[in-house]
Amino acid sequence: MDKLDSYLEKQYLYSKAYENAELYKSSDGKQTTKLKNIDSRDIKMLETEEILKDNGETFKLGKFEINLPNGEKVILTVDNNGKDMSCDFVDNDGNSQKFLLTPRMKKEIFKYQLETNLSIQELEQSLFPNSQEEMEKEIGKDSLIPKSAEETIKKIKEKNQNADVKEVQNLEKQNDEKTLEDENNEISLPENIKDKVQEVKENEGATLKHVLIAKNPSSVSEQLIDTAGLEDNGAPVYCLAFSNADLSTGNDRVIFVQGEKVVDERRYDEDASDIMNDYRNSSVVYNAEDKSNQIYYTDIDGHTTVADLVAEPKDLRREDKELLAEKLNDLEEKEEGIISSSNLTPSEKIEYSEKINMDRLELFKENGLKMPVIESEIKADLEIAEDVKSDIQEDEEQEEQEKPQEVEKEDEEDDDRDPRESKHNLEKFLY
Question: Is 266:260 a contact under the CB 8 Å cutoff?
């Protein structure tokens, strides 16, 4: 019986991972693909294991050995719902060569809006485990995913004692949470919703896992593949998540009820499950915000700001956010290429970086994004860049004028400072 149970457990986890998991296409960590896009002959289920956490709970995970089309071999780790956690690239002897958390796992760990003087690399080094062993150890200590912004900040400061890091406060969100605090404790379901719950239980034997009430209907419909017929200005939306007995999907079965309208279609389950997972500890919210997308901006002084990709007054759909995130990442990579180029002068690097920042602001505008913190950082950088370009130009003109003349000892009053050496951290442009 034990062997049969083990076999069924592996098959169940395989089916969930096949539907839900993504992995990197190569060890450069730039692109991902769904597990189901990999030839099944190149996928081998290694094991399932249980980690006993310090709080007495058990965390189940599974591991797959995958031969990638580029010839690399990777060990993909998934959780009990088949959602990807890490990719450990190994050699032919199984020795780890490069360990990477998946993008989904990174977002789970770093999901709070923070403002800090640390670089993105320093933040990742503080928050992300650097090996499979370290990840599993953190799972055991229940410290892999911080439960609050405060825990995230504490974790960052454990490795960077002098770090300047704080949460970006959202006053409107705080007021919403305070207003709804009492409502989160207990929910009284309307009779028509109770009837629907009972119908699903009786007909399918499904268990109601979670109820989430979204007072702003558009905050739900905007995260689905289409509006699902929900009225943006209508009544609050009751989101009912049931455990799904269908082994072919790792998503919950989610039913939406708005007034007398019931939306019970499986094509919304994937998006809806993401919403319910984001708010698994909440019962009532005003906006069911999409927490899956964040953007980072590192200014000219190396100061990094993190903000949610949220549009106002109407949020972007999930696919629009993913497309926008791709465009912003492309700009980031383009800027890195410019900065690292040895064929461009400092003035040219600054000029090209200015253009990229203008493109960022234009993207924000086109998509209705309101991110004052990051926008102010970008605009400040644009002003600094203009000052520095002017200093460099004056210096070059002075050098040109002095070329025919004999080099004389500089006046004592001259502070001997190259105009390009501003008080800002411009090394990324100058070297």
Answer: no
